[in-house]
Amino acid sequence: MLKTVVKKGSYHDSVVLMLLTNQISTIEGVNKVSIMMATPANKDIFKQSGLDTEELMESTANDMVVVADVNDDSLLDTIMTEVDEFFKKQSTANEGKKGAESVKSWDKALAKMPDADLAVISIPGAYAALEADRALDEGMNVFMFSDNVSIEDEKSLKEKAHKKGLAVMGPDCGTSIIQGVPVAFTNNVTPGSIGIIGASGTGIQELTTIIDRLGEGVKNAIGTGGRDLSKEVGGITMLDMIDAMEGDDSVKVLIVISKPPAKEVREKISARLSVFKKPVITLFLGEKPEYHEENFYHTYTLDEAARLAVSLVRGEEVKEGEVEVDKSEFYPAEAKKTIKAYYSGGTLAGEAAMLIKEALDMKVPPQKAEGFMLNTDGHIVVDLGDDVYTQGKPHPMIDPAKRIECMREAMDDASTGVVLLDIMLGYGSHEDMAGALLPAIEELQEKAKAEGRKIFFVATVCGTRRDYQGYDEAVNKMKAAGVIVCETNKLAVRTAIQAIGLDFTEPKKEIRPKQAADVTPGTPSEKLLKMLSEKPKIINIGLKSFAEVAEQFGCEAVQYDWMPPAGGNVELIKTLNFLRNYEGFDIDEANRAVIAKVVASQPVIKNVVLAKTVIKELNEGKVILHAGPPIEYKNMPDPVQGSCVGAVLFEEWADNEADARKLLESGEVKFIPCHHVKAVGPMGGITSANMAVFVVENVTDGNEAYCTMNEGIGKVLRFGAYSEEVVERLRWMRDILGPTLGRAIQELGGINVNPLVAKAIAMGDEFHQRNIAASLAFLKEVAPVITKLEMDEKDRYDVIKFLSDTDQFFLNIMMASGKAVMDGARTLTEGTIVTAMCRNGVEFGIRIAGMGDEWFTGPVNVPQGLYFTGYDGEDACPDMGDSAITETFGVGGMAMIAAPAVTRFVGAGGYEDALRTSTEMTEITIDRNPNFIVPNWNFQGICLGIDARLVVEKGITPVINTGIAHKIAGYGQIGAGTVHPPVECFEKAVAAYAKKLGFTL
């Protein structure tokens, strides 16, 4: 039976998950298991394995999914315990490591290392090209370990790099050495005067390790990716690097290697190399040159190329190595024995296939398919690193399982005389591949002996004596087990061929005069010359081990803990890239201008008046304002409809609930969003003509905003209550509280809001769920004036008592202030800063500066938090209210860290969670507000400027502190917590803005 566990928002690298999958697959009762991120490509792999489930298909690229075929349900608990322990061990293993500093975005990475010049990318191919494009825009060279990148994207990236004077190494580039610094799957090679450019990975490793063991060194070995010399790409990176290597005075000899190139590209490369000013060696795999030219040498094997390069550096011939083996035991050709060769990479496998075909005198090479470089008459050469074997599974350099499986299959063929294999040492490879393979080799040797068969195991170890696995240790382990170990791949293949009674010949080459082509060399860019002459400064996007190795070699590195941007939606990623690179004007500058207006704003409480005196629309018949984006009465949730009933009773449009509901359902009452008339309203947001509202003016921009007054706690209109008690309180607020405060505020000439906020935030308010300090500061301002007003003493007492008792009183002032400030800011009509957030109990809506009054909506969520006794999530109404304007302004949930006393109440857990929450909010905001300093946040300002692009890119939505209303009108507040907007609001806004600026997919 198939069981699925989805870990939402838990991103891990594919290599790590492959190793985890291998571990889980050993649990008894687990028939089949796959653990991957739910990217579109991985979903296809799940399907191919028969492991696709409904839960999997509903998951996103940021979700880790475990799908297991198990015999017993209870095994799922065992599996997940193992998974948790695996990651715990990984985390523990990394503790205390110096390691590259980790960040979670491009912006943070560039802030840490503004002079970074190399991006190392090892993420899923669907996203690698997009990140490479970003790196090029930032002026960085690119090393793309990632595969599954389209050839169209590769060409586009390389053309862009060429124009910018940069290089793209890859995609599917496994190896490079830059200024002695190993990149990706690379060996610890001595620096020296030999340069290498290779459209192969294991080929570069073989060359560099032979050179190292011969006592010379390599300064730069640049991988281009296997398709660089294809007809479609045209050798762009190869040609640029040839120019750069020629301009690098420290390179004395150059080696250029490639898997079989396209004919026209090979001719172009050869023509350029014919006018190279230094000795150059070529190796085009599959070609068998018969001569050299002066300072232009043409080789047949990697062994020959490496030895010739060392000979040229030293000025003396370096002889070929020898193999210690008793050849008298070998089979004669008449025995018709076959070779089974299992390789880690395509270049060594290709070389083996080439030499075996020559020994077999095969005139027409067979086509490569399913990873086979050769599959004829029982002879097999397989590239186990081919995509067909590695999709969703560890690479054979990491995991011995597939090779062991293949060797066992080889034993089932009676014709098998030789099993040939490579063992790759170095960074990224298995810590002891020799030791991991030995038990299987010894088992098969015993099996062959028991059957009276003779099978030779022949191996080559690709590595240096500085590789952490230990070259001599690996060689000695193999030899001790009776394996014939050869120092190069050519020698290993020749030994395997001789073991079945065959051989091949290598011509003795004469040196002819060089035929220089009519080619004008390109001028190497300063950036490429710099790359070849200085240690790279790396932003590592993907596998952490790549950054850790670079640091061991004295290289500066920043680890970008990448997750698929925009939830893995490629169209949205392209949209974000368009906005980032938009040339019409600087969107970042537009955003900074918007928040500059916020910082410069001066909200002042001017008065408390009847709503109809400042909102003209309330005088046009029966009109009710509501919170959130537009909604019809019939679609409002029950608490909001209850608030509407209360407003009808308050306005005396009906004198009972039944008639009130009948009126509301008749269509006679017009509903307008508060935001459409410069107002905001808490929870239901219901505001009618004769309700008292605060008037707040943003004196900087001269605009006003309005909000009803806070009703206190208990049964209140904003939570859907509409009893006589509720209506009477509203009338008291209209007749007594409002006029009293209005007179006091006017007596004071208005009250500046910013000083109250600055004081209160330092006293532990965040201005959405905790307003006690600000409410008392407000009371401190108005109380002396109220005591002098001519009014009824009981009314005076009632007003002051109400203000003293209502801890949340300042919230509505903060809302009106936020509205006034953000409306002032959005008079600037470009950019992606969020200028409003609100909800109506059904939809969540946002506005951004560049789209003016347009709403972008998505389904509203139910808050998560703590409930009053007797209630739980089943009782809760989806979130509602305009109070999220506070978060838009940078307070509320965005400033959670300012209010430690409230963090548990809203379900955040405690100080550490509050710190984590506010820190996370800095990921989606572009600045801080210096007006409002948070003492327990190291005296930093609150977050400011929610950038819709960052929300979409990172999948982090603003956190909003909120009250929780009962889903049935009349019950009122049943708890408090936090809620997040649906990310689709921001996705729609970003897509619409890009379209406005001319973007099309």
Structural features, described:
This is Acyl-CoA synthetase FdrA. InterPro entries: AllG-like, CoA-bd, OXTCase_su_AllG_h-dom, SUCC_ACL_C, Succinyl-CoA_synth-like. It is a single chain. By secondary structure, the chain is of the alpha/beta class. It has six domains: 93 residues; 105 residues, NAD(P)-binding Rossmann-like Domain (Rossmann fold, 3-Layer(aba) Sandwich); 151 residues, Rossmann fold; 179 residues, 3-Layer(aba) Sandwich (Rossmann fold), CATH 3.40.50; 221 residues, Enterococcus faecalis V583 domain (Enterococcus faecalis V583 fold), CATH 3.90.1710; 167 residues, Alpha-Beta Complex (v583 fold). 39% of the residues lie in helices and 20% in strands. It contains 34 helices and 40 strands. It has a six-stranded parallel sheet with strand order 4-24-23-5-6-7, with helices on both faces. Strands 17-18-16-19-20-21 form a six-stranded mixed sheet, sandwiched between helices. The chain is elongated and about 120 Å long. The model has no long low-confidence stretch (mean pLDDT 92).
Please describe the structure with a list of short key phrases separated by commas or semicolons.
1001 residues, alpha/beta, Rossmann fold, 6 domains, six-stranded mixed beta sheet, 40 strands, 20% strand, SUCC_ACL_C, Acyl-CoA synthetase FdrA, CoA-bd, Succinyl-CoA_synth-like
